[in-house]
Write a structure and sequence with these properties.
Elements: E1 22-26, H1 31-42, E2 46-50, H2 54-62, E3 70-72, H3 82-94, E4 99-102, H4 117-145, E5 148-153, H5 166-186, E6 191-198, H6 204-217, H7 221-229, H8 240-252, E7 260-263
Parallel strand pairs: 1-2, 1-4, 2-3, 4-5, 5-6, 6-7
């Protein structure tokens, strides 16, 4: 972990990066979250892992670098009380949360006319409201200590619209707005807030999307996967490691805040 200090704020001395940052990663049971947890652990972070599946979390924790201090905290972020429980659990174990990575999320595909109220609300609850509650719980301690990093794994759908995923797009646009507002509010506190916006990543979530395309269109799964690969100008899916490196950049560099960093093979140039 870099020992570089943040810029001094309000005339106060700069606050150095904690030696062993206390990190909470949501959606950590597989895919991007598992890779992010491993990347931060490799930099000496203590890592608290949360997702719904305890078995998946245990596997991720067991694969972390030797000597990693890890917490396994199964919970369901669709429960309004879960964010508070998770922040409290990390505070009880380690005294606070220095780095928050909001990675848990989901998507739903339907035409606008066939998007139900329940699907709409589920996208907002998981992709927007849960990160808001986590930020609300973690920010006061970060501000008190004069150092903190918040990274939300959003999507390029936070930047552009795409057909048949209106609820998902709306929730991701919303969470990018939350990131930008929080970054502006916290800019002088030593706390940075950023979003990482991947394109289609080689994860179980994309596997589910592939199956859905195949079922709805009659294409083979291989054909459906090629469609998603070609949405990136590179002609391939993004890797979880590429996303994790972008998350690490947001954690390591105090000069990056209020950004939505695209990791999408050049699909959205912004």
């Amino acid at each position: 972990m870099s020992s570089a200090s943040d810029t001094a704020t309000n005339g106060s001395p700069p606050v150095s990066t904690p030696a062993r940052p206390r990190t909470l990663v949501t959606g950590a049971g597989r895919g991007i979250g598992a890779t992010v947890a491993a990347r931060l652990a490799s930099e000496g972070h203590r890592v608290a892992l949360t997702a719904r599946s305890a078995d998946e979390l245990e596997r991720v924790a067991g694969a972390l670098p030797d000597g990693t201090d890890a917490l396994v905290l199964p919970d369901d972020l669709m429960d309004p009380a879960a964010p508070g429980r998770l922040i409290a659990a990390v505070e009880e174990a380690w005294g606070g949360v220095d780095v928050l990575v909001c990675n848990a999320g989901a998507g739903v595909s339907a035409s606008l006319a066939k998007t139900s109220d329940a699907d709409w609300q589920r996208m907002l609850d998981l992709n927007l409201t849960a990160p808001f509650r986590l930020l609300r719980g973690a920010v006061p301690g970060m501000v008190d200590r004069g150092w903190g990093r918040i990274v939300v794994v959003a999507s390029v759908a936070a930047k552009v619209g795409e057909p048949y995923i209106a609820a998902y797009v709306a929730s991701k646009h919303g969470v990018l707005g939350l990131v930008r507002a929080a970054a502006a509010e916290l800019a002088r506190t030593g706390v940075t807030v950023n979003a990482v916006c991947p394109g289609y990543v080689d994860t179980p979530m994309t596997d589910a999307t592939v199956r859905g395309i195949a079922e709805k269109t009659g294409r083979t799964e291989a054909e459906a996967r090629r469609i998603l690969e070609h949405k990136q100008p590179t002609g391939r899916l993004v890797t979880t490691e590429e996303v994790a490196e972008a998350v690490w950049a947001c954690v390591a560099n105090p000069g990056i805040t209020g950004q939505g960093i695209n990791v999408d093979g050049g699909a959205v140039q912004s």
